[in-house]
Design goal:
Elements (H helix, E strand, L loop, with lengths): L7 H9 L34 H12 L2 E2 H10 L21 H4 L1 H18 L4 E6 L5 H12 L6 E6 L3 H11 L2 E4 L5 H5 L7 E4 L5 E5 L10 E6 L8 E6 L2 E9 L8 E5 L18 E4 L1 H17 L1 E10 L8 E4 L2 E3 L9 E3 L2 E2 H8 L5 E8 H8 L1 H9 L4 H15 L8 E8 L3 H6 L4
Parallel strand pairs: 2-3, 2-7, 3-6, 7-12, 12-16
Antiparallel strand pairs: 1-9, 4-5, 5-6, 8-9, 8-11, 9-10, 12-18, 13-14, 13-15, 17-18
Family: Belongs to the NDUFAF7 family.
Subcellular location: Mitochondrion
Catalytic activity: L-arginyl-[protein] + 2 S-adenosyl-L-methionine = N(omega),N(omega)'-dimethyl-L-arginyl-[protein] + 2 S-adenosyl-L-homocysteine + 2 H(+)
Amino acid sequence: MGVCKGPQIFKKYVKCCKPFNTIMLPNYQQHYLFYSSCNFSTLNDKKPQSLYHHLYSRILACGPITVSDYMKEVLTHPIVGYYMNKDVFGKQGDFITSPEITQLFGEMIAIWMKYESQKISKGPFQIVELGPGRGTLIKDILRVYKQFKSLNNVTVHLVEISPTLSSIQAKNLCKTVIENDVNNNEFKKDNSVNYYRKGITEDGVKIYWYYSVKDVPKNFSIFLMHEFFDALPIHKFQKTDRGWCEILVDIVQGSNEEKFRYVLSNASTPATLYISADEKREHIEISPETLVIVDYIADFLWEHGGFALICDYGHNGDKTDTFRGFFQHKIHDPLLCPGTADLTADVDFAAIKKIAEKDDRLIAFGPVNQSNFLRNLGIDVRLQMLLKNVSEERKKSLKSQYHMIMDEDKMGTRFKVLSLFPSILKEYCAKVPVV
């Protein structure tokens, strides 16, 4: 992402900000799912005996399902879906994210946003985060913007389908909250209002919640997708002597465990149309929802202005079998006890770049290692500022948090960062490199 290091804006920040307490948590990942729409009133409110029995009955009646359908059911079933009715983050959950580990991460993201946005626009803008977890990243970003006295131009727009997580976000971010019933007829008549919740922070920043990114107002926006795409449903394919076959999920009859198994389709399926004709790998994973969302954001940025930042663990189009589960911070069989563990797959950054750059809409920078990205922004300088005038115990905690998100054997190289800008800025970005 260029070679610009330690932007001047950061030097101003580290002088005026005091340390901010964060808790020390283990090193694992956040994942969150997006749906293009969600109308909870039309869903069956009868709770299944368990997600396993629900899936078993469905497969028994209709045959094996795709891994994509399996992930959707497990993660976002409105009654018993993994994300829908509990807090899955932190020590008591199944994974932890960089923003939850340390304030340093959110502060560096805020510095990057401030530095890049002031180069191309001085007017009002939206921060749009897809899958905002507990709201920790947004909270850290707004704290930095407050230090720069830049909150007057900011509104926040969160895309979140989990009732539980959206409530946690509202509690962590807002002083006052107003709920909107998106299924109310009077509400539907006002086409200009698509959010289901509105809140205001203590500093007066307005925050809105949506079920779909397509409902976000069409204005200059900074899109944030931190550990978002890794939880979107994937299709899995295997090359055979019959050509490409899709890997499906089937029941295990007579099993003593709540477990499913993989089977191969007898022939190609409609989803095999997503496979590139020049694909060289024998086993691949494709997330159509990821491609649809990136395509929409590319059009959005081209038409309305702004830029996007994607932070996730992933690869550059070379990995194969990455689908897995996480339970209590350990890798878990994704087909065992569905609904009790997080499901995830590595993000294909090459596929994202290909869609984003289609028709010369966007230009992409990266992906680069998370450690390099944060170091170029001045995280080492910020750490030294935080270490001043604090207890030895606090110093130890800050250093541990830093190493967790920066070290090669932890999150430093495993996680990648990709930024996207409208192609109209190509010449300008060449003169003033993106950090």
